[in-house]
Amino acid sequence: MPAHQEHITAPFYKKPAFLAIAVLVLIAGFFLLRDSGGSMSTPEGTIKALVNALDDADIKTIASLYAPEEQPDAAELEEAEEFLNGMMEDVKFDNLEIIDVSVDGDKAHVEYRVDVSFMGETNTDKDVSDLIRINGKWYIDDSFAF
Fold this sequence. Notes:
36% of the residues lie in helices and 30% in strands. Mean pLDDT is 78; it is low at 12-38. It has helices at 16-37, 43-55, 59-64, 74-84, and strands spanning 91-104, 107-118, 121-134, 137-140.
């Protein structure tokens, strides 16, 4: 290359590797946003949201996953928060596995397994939940109780 010519490189945002990474980030972001925003759009999504809220000890989110007529009033929610305050911090929920989902119109039945850890011990719990679809969202069709 002659001495008077400068070597011009493409800006980093025009390089193929950067473009590939940017596209992957956008695709991953789309799926993450779609899953978090529409977490109640499927019975499985509602159960995933439940397990995540349990792991975060987020009582308000847990309550919001129940069918509207089963959700606690403010006093019941406060009582549940006081009762569980600190207790849930030592409990971890991990490795959710959806075993079976059966849907019949606006009703669903979900069988799932989740690892529950407390004080160094981990147990795998198998559970079932009945759900109901209301206005396109799936809710747990059971009484909210702690």
